[in-house]
Amino acid sequence: MHGLHTAAPTSMLAGSPLASTTPQHWVCGGHPWRPTVSKRPPKKCLARASATLHKLAGSGQYAGAVWPGPSSGDPTTPTPLHGSCTGGAEAEEHALRLQLELHDHFMNEQAGSPQTRSGRARRVMEGAAADSARGGFPWSAEGLLEAYRRCGVVTAEHAKTFYLGTQLMTPEKARAIWAIYVWCRRTDELVDGPNASRINPAALDRWEERLEAIFENKPYDAFDAALADTVQRFPLHIQPFRDMIGGMRMDLEKSRYETYDELYDYCYRVAGTVGLMSAPVMGIDTQYKGPLDPVYRAALSLGTANQLTNILRDVGEDAQQRSRVYLPLDELARFGISPGEVLEGTLARAPGQVDPRWAAFMRFQIERTRAVFSEAEGGIRQLSRDARWPVWSALILYRQILDAIEANGYDNFTRRAYVPKWRKLATLPSALVLAQAPWVAQGGRGEDAPGRQPAAAGSGGDAPALGGGEQPQR
């Protein structure tokens, strides 16, 4: 379902061996929308979660929702929306740790002596030469520039707003972001493109083997060559790329998600991973002296929020065209809604008129998604100034998709929420102003960077962003 939604040119997979494949928790940190790997909820976290859900249940907005207690079944005692956290939260933490370690090592090396930095550059060049000598990386400098140019053409065609934002980046950063975007799009197209009916787990195994080859400087084609060069220049770990392929596997195997934990797993793999891939290229503001962790977590939040927005926008399309329900079934049940009603579209009584249960359910989902967007804001401010514009644009535009769903009366069965082109263009100047604002630390101290603090859920999208643009539409 949602990631790089628009179909990419079939030529992107032409010549690929995949083109001919035959068929065969607890809440923590005050965030009830984000699972963690903690198995026992700290009292403070549980208190915040309960307070949040009490507020939701008692506000009148979610009339009809059932909030069972931990064991008594008492509907007046809200419980966290998650059970024990596995899957996505653990996979996310694993990839995050690996990426942070690699980025820290890279930054330490960059902070070293000129001899250390030039030594790294020399090792990159020598490694490429050695790979070329043994048939691993036969791309000349001119060939690589052409490969990057082709990546830019694809990005410009399918993610126009995001591509425009990359024009403020250094050429090296822009080219790297294009290469990542194209790899994500090609990966998404395996299960959503014209050859999707012929893709099976074995085909994804072969795609993962190609990924391994890219990271070994042995690209299969020009698009792979651009990414292979990118991973030599920036501290990109392979794990987020592997996890995205894991998200494609989920699309082959799953059409229902029992809980938000399960859905979060999917969202991390198909969209949160984009944030982990992009942040190392976009870079950190030189004035920021705090830890990298909150910056990367904000990147994950933006990718996840973009994906949740895609899901809410495409409920009717997924149900009617794919017989899929990308909504937590336990939460549907709390609002008295069955999966069958979603699949049959009976919750839309007429264009723009929906069942009150659905309206209440959608209000809850949109509020949670806006809260995740709010989490992402602090991290954007820590990015290098030349990389912030496309990320701010992504965040603002995706939030506007949520506004459009509301404007449609929560009817995402017969109406598609979208942001008109004129509004997208009108958004760009305000995003640019935000992007160019001087970096200011929370509390005025660089070491006190905004982290995963509770955010107002009412704050109020197209992008790969810190997750950004027209995002890989899984």
TrEMBL record:
One of its GO terms (molecular function) is geranylgeranyl diphosphate synthase activity. Keywords: Carotenoid biosynthesis, Transferase. GO terms for cellular component: plastid. This is 15-cis-phytoene synthase. The keyword Transferase applies. Residues 66-88, 442-474 are annotated as: Disordered. The keyword RNA-binding does not apply. CDD domains: Trans_IPPS_HH (cd00683). Belongs to the phytoene/squalene synthase family. It holds the Pfam family SQS_PSY. It comes from the Eukaryota. PANTHER family: BIFUNCTIONAL LYCOPENE CYCLASE/PHYTOENE SYNTHASE. Signal peptide: none annotated. It is an enzyme of class 2 (transferase). It catalyses: 2 (2E,6E,10E)-geranylgeranyl diphosphate = 15-cis-phytoene + 2 diphosphate. It comes from Auxenochlorella protothecoides.
